[in-house]
Amino acid sequence: MKRETIQSAFLIALIIGAGYLFFRMLAPFLSPIMWAIVLVILFQPIHRRMSRRVRNVDVAALLSCLLVLAVVIVPATLIVMGLIGELIATYRLIEERFASGAWAFRLEPGRNRILERSLSWLTQYADLSELNLHAFILNNLQRLSGYLAARSAEVVKQFSSFVFNTGLAIFTTYFLFRDGPALMVRLKRAIPLPESEAEEVFKRMQEMIQATLYGGIAVALAQGALGGIAFWIVGLPSPLIWGAVMFFFSFLPVVGAAIIWAPAAIVLIAQGSFGKGLFVLLWGALVISTVDNIIRPWVIGGRTRLPMLLIFFSVLGGVKLFGFIGVVMGPVVLSVALTLVEIFRRKLTPARISEAAAASPS
Description:
The model has no long low-confidence stretch (mean pLDDT about 75). This protein has helices spanning about 5-25, 30-55, 55-100, 115-120, 135-150, 150-190, 195-235, 240-250, 260-270, 275-305, 310-320, 325-360. It is mostly helical. The chain has 3 domains: about 30-100, no CATH class; about 105-155, no CATH class; about 195-345.
């Protein structure tokens, strides 16, 4: 074996080993790093304009970070805190109403036609003679109360982790705004691909991130607004807060905003407000959910030219692997993989033509 071959193999092994150790060091911080990348790409057009007006790169990066804080992070934190308060208040209200018997009459026979018909249909397949819905619901609410009390320490720990990760994300965002162009040049040179192909990979990544973000934001704005309007029409409390909550949940695949409006419809029907509950249910199923099917394929599919089925499963897999940020990173990984396959196919095609020409009889 040639000495050069041994040296190359040894160098490759060292690169793989160093890369693995580097990844292990970054693994605990991947989530804030990926959030920082997403925020930088989202605010990059604004940062470019700011950099043209503010000549100092440090000041421009700092102003862009402050803008990210004011537009994204602070409102998101306030909404999450408001949501937690609303959930606690709603939970206590439901427990108090059931414990005092104020809502118990809604579960009595003849008081709720929908519930009575549902139980009548279920009795055809199961014995419900000993079922006591009031006691069942109250017992489960008490169990939930005990579970939440036991998990209070975990909640405090998670909040501390959230604050720490948010600080890391802002810190990373600042340096990406400031040193992003130079870092991109070094990354492109480090990739063992021709400059044009490395540029193609990064361009596809940026297109996918932008398409996913813009499509997700457009869908979330529409679903949050429509959900808040529905809650306001039926007289549910805090429609603005619940509309904002649906905005965030709209980014989740499969469940989306339905995780908010569907339970609200069920609670209204259980209370005896059948018309309001049916309205929220139909509004959510026919209007809110339909918006997703119209806007998202139009924005994402039109920009990236990828099949929606692949995008759908990449979002599911991304959420499972990366957490909430997987909504963006899943499609990005898909886009990079398909781009690399396309580059490999282009490199392989001339070789196949040459082989076919050599094998053909002259």
